[in-house]
Specification:
Layout: H1 2-31, E1 40-44, H2 50-59, H3 67-76, E2 83-87, H4 93-102, E3 107-111, H5 118-127, H6 140-146, E4 162-166, H7 171-191, H8 202-215, H9 222-235, H10 242-249, H11 259-263, H12 286-293, E5 302-305, E6 311-314, H13 317-329
Antiparallel strand pairs: 1-2, 3-4, 5-6
Length: 332
């Protein structure tokens, strides 16, 4: 009898020990860091099952598809949200599942650079493997129609800025954000513009800003360059700005502007035509828009590059020709 009691006690003690070990192992499983060394990325495509997620974690060498994972799935029945998740050092099983259920996906950034053309922006979007491309081969008019701007030109219609997105975001979604932001900023700047500008509508401000963007990268010069162009518009002078000529040449431009280019007429040639070109020539940033809306006062009608990123401004053609001799011909 005593032997039987002893056996029962030993069995109970063993069962209790095993139970305590299982509880401890279960808690350790949920709270032990998955990845103690460095950041890892988990990508859950739409429709990914719990088992497929665990197998992906196993391929990353941060999990083993054992009974604990299967039990966790049955007890918790987590609702997985598609997306890209960052597994940082210290992330636990429970923490990762909570992160996935809340949809706390990893964020990426894309910078649209001031002065890029529309085509350069598209190429940048298409080259990013995190972005899902849906508009390749779609012409500009059809694309703008998709963006709710039927009949609009695409050039200049997107605000250069840094945009945050999650993996799987489409190129059209990002372009729609940049397009909405440009519409908002252009409306704000136009509403606060100087009232005596020789511009009749926001689109003309956009065109002028794009020229300013391409003419100078110096923040301190934008308003002065704007002032030159505004005075030329007011007096009926041609703008005579090289970036518009280059834009009109398109793929025919080989990197060097020649006299024949300045004499060859096309809609963007401001040497052969008066007024603003028919469309912007680049994507202007907010600073260029503000400069176009608030040009600096002055009497300068000319400017030429000094070759160091800055420009020499002149009031008269004689002064300008002397500056050209010094900074352009002298450099040659």
């Amino acid at each position: 009898m005593r032997i039987l009691q002893l056996i029962l006690v030993l069995l109970l003690a063993g069962a209790l020990s095993a139970g305590l070990w299982l509880v401890h192992d279960w808690q350790r499983f949920q709270n032990q860091p998955l990845n103690p060394e460095g950041d890892m990325v988990l990508w859950l495509a739409p429709g990914t099952s719990y088992g497929a997620m665990v197998r992906q974690l196993e391929s990353l060498k941060v999990a083993r598809h054992d009974w604990r994972w299967r039990l966790y799935g049955r007890l918790k029945a987590p609702q997985l949200k598609a997306g890209e998740y960052l597994i940082e050092p210290g992330t636990t099983v429970a923490g990762l599942i909570e992160q996935i259920e809340r949809g706390e996906v990893r964020s990426h950034r894309l910078t649209i650079v001031e002065g890029w053309t529309f085509e350069q922006m598209r190429e940048r979007l298409y080259a990013d493997p995190r972005i899902r491309v849906t508009t390749r081969g779609v012409d500009e008019s059809a694309l703008m129609e998709r963006l709710g701007c039927s009949g609009c030109y695409a050039e200049g219609r997107f605000l250069p800025e840094t945009y945050f997105f999650v993996r799987g975001t489409t190129d059209l979604e990002l372009m729609a954000r940049a397009h909405r932001d440009m519409n908002r900023v252009l409306s704000e700047v136009w509403s606060g513009r100087a009232l005596d500008l020789p511009l009749d509508e926001p689109d003309e401000l956009l065109v002028l800003a794009s020229i300013i963007e391409r003419e100078t990268g110096q923040a301190s010069e934008r308003a002065r360059v704007a002032g030159v162009f505004v005075r030329r518009l007011e007096t009926g002078m041609r703008l005579q700005t090289d970036p518009t000529v280059v834009y009109g040449l398109g793929d025919d431009f080989d990197g060097r502007i020649r006299r024949v280019h300045l004499r060859t007429d096309h809609p963007w040639n401001t040497y052969t035509r008066h007024g603003l070109p028919p469309t912007p020539i680049a994507l202007p940033g907010r600073a260029a828009l503000e400069a176009a809306a608030h040009p600096a006062d002055g009497t300068s009608l000319y400017f030429v590059s000094r070759g160091d990123g800055t420009h020499q401004f002149s009031d008269t053609l004689a002064e300008h020709n002397a500056a050209v001799d010094r900074y352009i011909r002298g450099r040659r």
